[in-house]
Design a protein that fits this description.
The chain has 68 residues and is mainly α. The protein has helices spanning 4-18, 24-38, 47-62. The chain is 68% helix and 0% strand.
């Protein structure tokens, strides 16, 4: 769900890439890829932290009266 103005901006970027790509689908893909490249990369948590966080959430779900 995007606003009409955001769709227009996205379509304008797609149109820019359409001149350099063989298909419309490729232009959409190229646009999305470039937007992802421009976005800041989140800091990746270590696998150990992911596991510990998962265990904590699992334990909380097992507690009586805990709302997920």
């Amino acid at each position: 769900a995007m606003s009409e103005s955001d769709w227009a901006r996205f379509e304008a970027r797609v149109h820019e890439h359409a001149a350099h790509t063989p298909t419309q689908a490729r232009a959409y893909g190229e646009t999305i890829a470039r937007l992802l490249d421009a976005a800041p990369h989140p800091v990746e948590p270590s696998p150990a932290l992911d596991w510990l966080d998962w265990e904590r959430r699992k334990s909380l779900r097992l507690l009586p009266g805990h709302i997920n």
